[in-house]
Write a structure and sequence with these properties.
By secondary structure, the chain is an alpha+beta fold. It folds into two domains: 1-42; 46-113. The chain is 39% helix and 27% strand. It contains three helices and five strands; from the N terminus they run ααβαββββ. The protein has helices at residues 3-19, 27-34, 58-76; strands spanning 48-56, 78-80, 86-88, 94-96, 101-112. Strands 1, 2, 3, 4 and 5 form a five-stranded antiparallel beta sheet that branches. A hairpin with a 4-residue loop joins strand 4 (94-96) and strand 5.
Length: 113
């Protein structure tokens, strides 16, 4: 699959999640939105990843990604690698369901400068 098609499918999932935060989201349902298999990893080839721990709401996660790229990365001695970034949710990621906060790992593929 070409990178542009992959990005379109992932963006469809992101849009779906943002519009259905109050509803139930399942891996199988999100895989259907993107036309992916829920059992096959996508775009996770080998290499190093910078991992940022995140706890917050869906509205805050974009700001954390921005800080990874604008603050951490320039001072790190690394540059982005040509592999997809991803967010990793393990088990039950919810921290406070009433406040709609959750836990995730933001994973940025990197290589030395």
């Amino acid at each position: 699959m070409r990178r542009l098609e992959y990005e379109k499918r992932v963006n469809r999932v992101i849009d779906h999640i943002e519009h259905h935060l109050a509803g139930e989201l399942s891996l199988e349902g999100l895989a259907r939105v993107a036309a992916f298999s829920p059992f096959q990893p996508h775009g996770r080839s080998g290499g190093a990843y910078a991992v940022a721990e995140f706890v917050g709401s869906a509205h805050e996660i974009e700001g954390v990604w921005d800080r990874v790229f604008s603050a951490w990365l320039p001072a790190s001695g690394y540059q982005p690698d040509d592999r997809p970034c991803f967010e990793l949710y393990r088990g039950d990621p919810s921290v406070d369901p009433k406040a709609k906060t959750f836990r995730a790992e933001l994973c940025l593929p990197v290589r030395p400068l």
